[in-house]
Design a protein that fits this description.
This protein is an alpha/beta fold. It contains seven helices and 19 strands. About 2% of the residues have low confidence. It catalyses: S-sulfanyl-L-cysteinyl-[protein] + uridine(34) in tRNA + AH2 + ATP = 2-thiouridine(34) in tRNA + L-cysteinyl-[protein] + A + AMP + diphosphate + H(+).
Length: 359
């Protein structure tokens, strides 16, 4: 089987490519150049996509003994991930750019190109397992990436190879050292790869401006002023600068139309119904009746008991108990134990839904 191994220049993708080659696959390594200005996407251990990363990936490919190429996908990345990130914040939502990158770059644009070139699958260093065609959590719970891969459909999973799901990160680093791969101790990248300094608010202000607007409570009383509604997210408590307001306040909503940030007590954050858009069912057929399962609402977040079903083109989720701080734009990922059933992008939330009948 011909496999295209996506090699970021980090230890995970290098060991994944080595394992795929050792398993007998005909492996070719490829590094994705995602930045028009590579130096802008990294600062220390933050980010990725630098010239250094490309060289690290090439050195790893040489050690493994596989062909290696660099694919320039900067335009696709800027259009599908960076521009989407900015527009989502402008709309008052909180996106997950890693999920969009997996969905639209690594397992859409790259996989499509790989198949067109005669490859059978794409191999990556994601910490996740595939069991009978379904995504399953990694044995390393702290590094599990099933949440950010839950946007993949069944066909994409069938053309993917994930060699690291049965190993911990410590085992991967030790194996890299044994193999003589120089990035064995290279730090993991952190935060958002295209915001090298980690200043998300500054990045958004540069692109969307910082127009001041009111911070209001639920009754419409103005409590303070912000310098850009897009720099806030639902559930945020710190950095509100409400002066002498004695009560602890949280961001309840961001309203870009009138440039208003709405705040209130934690109780007002609680929701028990979530509606998601663009549902993907990869672990089972779409549920047309309420299905008892678990839902994860943010990366590395808690899993909550719920009932979920598809209604027309939406995924409806009724939580068994109310949850605080659920932000539109994030992903809702359904699980049965440690197996991914499906996912959707959160479009709206509400409180006090009527009980759903379990099928």
């Amino acid at each position: 089987m011909r496999v295209l191994a996506a090699m970021s220049g980090g230890v995970d993708s290098a060991v994944a490519a080595a394992r795929a080659s050792e398993a007998g696959y005909d492996v070719t390594g490829v590094h994705l150049a995602l930045s028009k200005n590579p130096q802008s996407y990294r600062s220390g251990a933050r980010g990725c996509c630098t010239v250094e990363d490309s060289r690290d990936a090439r050195r790893a490919a040489d050690v493994i003994g596989i062909p290696f190429y660099v694919w320039d996908m900067a335009e696709e990345f800027d259009r599908e991930v960076v521009a989407d990130f900015v527009s989502e914040y402008a709309a008052g939502r909180t996106p997950n750019p890693c999920m969009r990158c997996n969905e639209r770059i690594k397992f859409e644009a790259v996989l499509d190109r790989a198949l067109a070139l005669g490859f059978d699958a794409v191999c990556t260093g994601h910490h996740v397992r595939v069991d009978d065609g379904r995504l399953r959590r990694s044995v390393d719970g702290g590094k599990d990436q099933s949440y950010v891969l839950a946007v993949l459909n069944s066909e994409q999973i069938a053309h993917s190879v994930f060699p690291l799901g049965d190993s911990t990160k410590e085992e991967v680093r030790a194996e890299a050292a044994r193999r003589g791969i120089s990035v064995a101790e290279k730090p993991d990248s952190h935060d958002i790869c295209f915001i090298a300094d980690g200043d998300t608010a500054g990045f958004l202000n540069e692109r969307l401006g910082g127009e001041p607007g009111p911070i209001e409570d639920e009754s419409g009383t103005v409590l303070g002023e912000h310098n850009g509604a897009h720099t806030y997210t639902v559930g945020q408590r710190k950095g509100l600068n409400l002066g002498g307001t004695p009560e602890r306040r949280y961001v309840l909503s961001i309203e870009p139309v009138n440039n208003t940030v709405r705040v209130g007590p934690r109780e007002s954050l609680l929701v028990d119904e979530i509606v998601g858009e663009r549902p993907v069912w990869s672990g089972r057929a779409p549920a047309t009746e309420p299905l008892s399962c678990g839902v994860q609402l943010r990366a590395h977040g808690e899993v909550y008991a719920c009932r979920a079903w598809q209604r027309d083109e939406e995924l409806v989720i009724r939580l068994d108990e109310p949850v605080a701080g659920v932000a539109a734009g994030q992903a809702a990922v359904l699980y049965e134990d440690d197996i991914v059933l499906g996912s959707a992008t959160i479009a709206s939330t509400s409180r006090s839904a009527e009980p759903a009948t379990v099928s």
